[in-house]
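User: I'm putting together a teaching handout on how sequence relates to shape, and I'd like one worked example. Could you take Histidine kinase from Hymenobacter mucosus, show the sequence you're using, and then write out its predicted structure as tokens right after it?

Assistant: Happy to. First the sequence, then the structure tokens directly below it.
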Amino acid sequence: MNRQTTRYHLLGWGLLIAYDFVGIVGERPTNLGVLLLLQFTFRLSMMSVFYYCFLLVFPRYLRLSRMPQLLLGLGLAPVVFTGTRYMLEQVLLPLLFGFSNYYGEVNLWAYLLDNAERGLPMMMVAAAAWGVQDAFLQETRRENEQLMQEKTQAELAFLKTQINPHFLYNTLNYIYSEAYLVSEPLAETVLRLSDLMRYMLHESPDGKVELRKEIDYLENYLMLHRLRFENKFFVDFEQVGHVERQRVASLVLVPFVENALKHGVVNRPDQPISITLTLPAPTHLRFDVRNHINHYQKDHTTGIGLANLRRRLALLYPNRHQLHIQQDATTYCTTLELEL
């Protein structure tokens, strides 16, 4: 069992023993100590048959569909319960405290049947608990396999982009030098495009970059779109807070901007796309993107897909991010908060 499962088991048994204690004390018996000890030894006997089934029988035989061994193991479960209870109540208690649970002559078969009947419910509880745990483990295993498959696909996709990046850089440098002779603004555009491609193909060991570089990428990205739309591109990009040497996952912010540009209104000065990057604390980033919805576009797909971005955030920032999306008939807003 892992640490979390152990905590759940301790909590369950603790609550059960506390319930016994409150019930016995509430009746105010004259032999309170005796009853508490007997109830405690009974619970220990229940634990023995529970973990015999939970840790030994079901994992070893039920998962592998070994029915003869499973039936034999379950058949021995009442023996485990009876033997444990006998050692605790008929041997240990008389030795330590001078009393036992059964006084006088006890019919052997009656003793065995009584204990078998009492141990059977705990066998069923163990079966249910093991079934829940096994289902959870299988689901976790499937999710991990899916994540590994997605990671492999992402690595393959990344390797495809790395086939010959130097060829792309050299070609863009050549185009830049030729364009500079014709038009400096055109050459500047080629240079920005080269910077974007270099940033996209760069891979750091931990997958993170300096936040300033991520912001520079966004600004270059918006500049290229502004050139494309000429004077009909209205996007407000505001940065609040001081950027120092914070690091952030590469290309984690741009999908929100891409989505806004693809599905939002960009050509109306009274309805600009609003992008705000806020650093309320050195290790806390908030990224807000708000756009008016373009109801006249033909393509209603979500581009790279926010679902993929959610999975990426879950991998990169587990329990360290919050993503909120609000949409009405006219506007679409996303808010991402990260603990850097």
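A couple of points you could highlight for students: The longest helix spans residues 108-161. The two ends are 33 Å apart (CA to CA).
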